[in-house]
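Sat 14:20. Reprocessing the chain from the morning session after the first attempt stalled halfway. Input below, unchanged.
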Amino acid sequence: MNNLVGVVSLLDSKHDAQVRRIWEALKTECTWIGPNPKDVPHFSWHVAESYDEEHLAGTLLEICSRWKPFVVQTAGIGIFAAEKPVIYIALVKNQPLIQLHHMVWERLQGLGQGVSPYYAPDAWMPHITIAYEGVDPQSIGCLIQELAFETLRWDIMVDNLIMVGRTVDADQPPLIRFSFTG
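Finished this time. Tokens:
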């Protein structure tokens, strides 16, 4: 069993479909095994080992009541270099994205245990993960080569915060969606 918890935003339907198309193309063209079947295209705001879920839900509902949908742009591909590298599509930090992230970070302090420092405002690099499982020396060159010729300058409407997680097993992890209504 995995304990996967966090606050993310799902992509709009157009960009969800584009990421899924990229996943399929990379599986076909490269020796990459593909994403975890449970993965959904998204970007993350806050991640922890666990949360006080009742208070988290109320906090996200309150945050979303203050926000109107806004647009973020992507800016090509990147790699988080590590023993297990991550290939991603970078998001450009704009004022609404930065302001909302600060609000999420501040409001979720004390609600999460084992909070990932990678999501702190001074470290956060907003991104859409493309490949993280099965990226190995044999596939990484092909993955980058295929993505290098993709037009990855997208305008994505951000209109939700999603509570992802709880302890999950073979079933799809619960997603609780809060839409911006501000």
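The longest strand covers residues 70-80.
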